Amino acid sequence: MVVIGSGFAGLWAALGAARRLDELAVPAGTVDITVLSAKPFHDIRVRNYEADLSTCRIPLADLLDPVGVAHVATEVTGIDSGARTITTSGGVTCGYDRLVLASGSHVLKPAIPGLREFGFDVDTYDGALALLQHLRKLADEAPTQAAATVVVVGAGLTGIEAACELPKRLRALFSAAGVTPRVILVDRNPMVGSDMGSSARPVIERALSHNGVETRTAVSVTDVTKRGVSLSSGEELQAATVVWCAGMRASSLTEQLPVPRDRLGRVEVDDYLRVVAAPAVFAAGDVAAARMDDEHLSVMSCQHGRPMGRYAGYNVISDLFHEPMLALRIPWYVTVLDLGPAGAVYTEGWDRAVVSVGAQAKETKQTINTRRIYPPLTRSRADLLAAAAPDLQARP
User: Fold this and answer.
1) Where in the chain is the domain with CATH 3.50.50.60?
2) CATH number for region 2-106+248-332
3) pLDDT tens digits, residue range 39-81?
4) pLDDT tens, 232-267?
5) What percent of the chain has pLDDT over 70?
6) Of 164, 220, 324, 355, whose CA is between 20 and 30 Å from 84?
7) In what order do the strands lie in the sheet with 353-357?
8) Which of 136, 224, 148 is nearest to 186 (CA)?
9) Taking Cα atoms as reference points, which of 246, 295, 223 lies closest to residue 122?
10) Domain 115-244, what fold?
């Protein structure tokens, strides 16, 4: 069995498979589980907007070695689902009996002049670290207003969280520089948080104002330079830092499967996480469009990626040994959005009705970010296998 990816879905698919082997008392050495991912870490990706990343990267050896799962640090470049083989960047080809595709997603950067050269993001640990180092370097140089100005593009969940976190970070960096930090949130939609519903949007707007974040809506970025960005409205924003948070796309490895993909590049899976029309291939997390209930598909989030991984791992092993599989349905949906010093907003339901705000919601968010989404860090086989049970957590 091979798992591609070591994010929320990939890690839990591997651990879920190891648990199922243990549950079925399969003799050691009968089934090999191998995780393929470019780096030997499990990254807590959803925390990349935060200033302190010191606890956001966990060595995979601490999580996989105790349960007998192998990891190979490599980039997967090809999947032949007919031949049941995988090709890696080193030119190595390996076979599989069952495959779990859990290679995640990436921020979608359009072909805007200068964006790839001068734009930053918080999509990956390395990207977030590069942004942090860039801001520190600016603060060490001769202070200017442009150096203390950040433009965040994309007022979805990631963009809002990044924008709300940045003013405090900039004030700490530029406190002795004599310039006032400025954060500007830009979005092509007519309002920020356009997917958050009418109940949560006013909370978000008040939080942005409280944090001193400016907004530019119903405009798009037309050009990015080292000195700032140009907007479709004709406005020029002088800023030494541009953080791109607009749009997500499933891993391009989904294109290796001979199946249709949705507008986000995801493949369709059935209730057991099997890729429709691709025998022996399962998919979980951001690459998979899974039905959560009769009306809604999964979203690109750890909220769905983690249980999808657990169920995929359980079902792969069950499929291998002709045992019953478990259908995944998640009957609830929540959103907890960090609003920086203004607290947070917690919503329930697909219409995102506000349940709590401010300090109360912030406490929930911190519990999620620092405990709930973490695997056990004890290096204990028993703890890791227990955490991989295909159970649905209650609402946070």
Assistant:
1) 2-106+248-332, 115-244
2) 3.50.50.60
3) 999 999 999 999 999 999 999 999 999 999 999 999 999 999 9
4) 999 999 999 999 999 999 999 999 999 999 999 999
5) 100
6) 324
7) 334-338, 344-348, 353-357
8) 224
9) 246
10) FAD/NAD(P)-binding domain (3.50.50)
